[in-house]
Write a structure and sequence with these properties.
Length: about 325
C-alpha cells in the first residue's frame, strides 16, 4: 500500500538547515499551542499535536535526521524495497513531549500516546512506520504486522456548567456536582478559586469517566457562568459602580459612601464642581487574580462613576437660593 511522504521540516515550520536549538524552539512553541490540555475535545489540534511529535521524533534525533535527509527524493524507491525501511529495524519509535520536570523533554512511548488520546489506533503515520518503525515483514508481501492487545485507555472527560454570583466569583466557592454514568451516581465537591472569570473552565482531575484496561480516569470540567450583578459591573479584574452624589455635594464638594464587593463601605472625597459621569478610581478594590497566594493578593481596581442626584422637590427657601444663584450667573 502506497504511503504519503511526510515533510517534517514543513510540519515544524523550519528550514532544512535549522539548528538543533531552532528545531527544539519551534517544536516547543507549536506543541504548547496544540497540546490536548489547551485544546480539549478539538480533533484538529489532536491531529496536529501527533504530527508535531512525529516530526520532532525524527528531526530531533541526529541519527534519524541524517537518515531522513539521505532518504530525500528517493523515498519512493526505498519504500518499494520492502518493509522495515532502508535503515533497518528498531522498535516502534517514541515521542518527545514536555513532561514539566526539571529535565525538560523526554521520549514518550506509543502506549503512552494511545493512553493520552484513547483508542487502539496507531498514533504513527504509515510513512514513519515504513521508514523508521522497523518490524519484520510477514507473508503478505512484506507488510508490517502488529500484535494488538488491550492498551491503557484514558477515560472520557466530562463537562458541566455552573452558575456563580459575582460575590462567589470574588470570594471563591465550592460546588457539589452530581455525576451519573450509566447506573453509577456520585457527587463531587469542586473548589472554584477566587477571581474566576466568566467562561473559565475549572478542572477536577480524575473525576471523569473511568479508564479502560487500567487506564487513568478522565477529568471533570466545570464551565463557569458568572451571573450579572445589580450593583457592580465586572470588566476583567476591575469593577465599576455608580454612586449617587447630591447636587449640592457635586457643586460644593464633600464625601459620599461607595460600596465594595467585600461588603465594606468606603468614603470617597468628591471635589467641588464634580460633573455627572465623572469617574473616580479606588485602587485594589476590584476582583482578585486567580492563583495568587493570600499573603500576596493581586486585585484589580474599583471605578466609581458620579451620578448627580437632582432634588425631587424644592422648598421656598431652596427655590429662593437657586433663583439668587441663577441671577448671579
Amino acid at each position: 500500500m502506497a504511503v504519503e511522504f511526510k515533510d517534517y521540516y514543513a510540519t515544524l515550520g523550519v528550514s532544512k538547515t535549522a539548528t538543533e536549538k531552532e528545531l527544539k524552539a519551534a517544536y516547543r512553541k507549536l506543541a504548547r499551542k496544540h497540546h490536548p490540555d489547551v485544546n480539549p475535545g478539538d480533533p484538529s489540534a489532536e491531529s496536529k499535536f501527533k504530527e508535531l511529535n512525529e516530526a520532532y521524533e525524527v528531526l530531533g534525533d541526529p541519527d534519524k535526521r541524517r537518515k531522513y535527509d539521505e532518504l530525500g527524493a528517493n523515498w519512493k524507491q526505498y519504500e518499494q524495497q520492502g518493509a522495515g525501511g532502508p535503515f533497518g529495524g528498531g522498535g516502534g519509535g517514541a515521542w518527545n513531549i514536555n513532561m514539566g520536570g526539571p529535565g525538560g523533554y523526554r521520549t514518550m512511548t506509543q502506549e503512552e500516546m494511545e493512553s493520552m488520546f484513547g483508542g487502539d489506533a496507531d498514533p504513527f503515520s504509515d510513512f514513519f512506520n515504513t521508514f523508521f518503525g522497523g518490524g519484520a515483514g510477514g507473508p503478505e508481501g512484506g507488510a508490517q504486522r502488529r500484535t494488538h492487545r488491550p492498551r491503557h485507555r484514558k477515560g472520557r472527560d466530562l463537562e458541566q456548567q455552573v452558575d456563580l454570583t459575582l460575590e462567589e466569583a470574588f470570594a471563591g466557592a465550592t460546588r457539589r456536582v452530581g455525576i451519573q454514568l450509566g447506573s453509577d451516581t456520585r457527587t463531587v465537591d469542586v473548589r472554584i478559586p477566587a477571581g474566576v472569570k466568566d467562561g473559565a473552565r475549572v478542572r477536577k482531575s480524575g473525576e471523569g469517566e473511568s479508564g479502560a484496561h487500567g487506564g487513568s480516569a478522565g477529568d471533570l470540567y466545570l464551565r463557569v457562568r458568572v451571573l450579572p450583578h445589580s450593583t457592580f459591573e465586572r470588566r476583567g479584574q476591575d469593577l465599576h459602580v455608580k454612586v449617587v452624589v447630591p447636587v449640592a455635594t457635586a457643586v460644593l464638594g464633600g464625601e459620599v459612601a461607595v460600596p465594595t464587593m467585600s461588603g465594606s463601605t468606603l468614603r470617597l472625597k468628591i471635589p467641588e464642581l464634580t460633573q455627572n459621569g465623572q469617574v473616580f478610581r479606588l485602587r485594589g478594590q476590584g476582583m482578585p487574580a486567580v492563583g495568587k497566594p493570600p499573603d500576596k493578593p493581586a486585585r484589580g481596581d474599583l471605578y466609581a462613576a458620579a451620578e448627580i442626584a437632582m432634588p425631587k422637590e424644592l422648598t421656598p427657601e431652596a427655590r429662593k437660593a437657586w433663583e439668587e444663584l441663577a441671577n448671579q450667573s
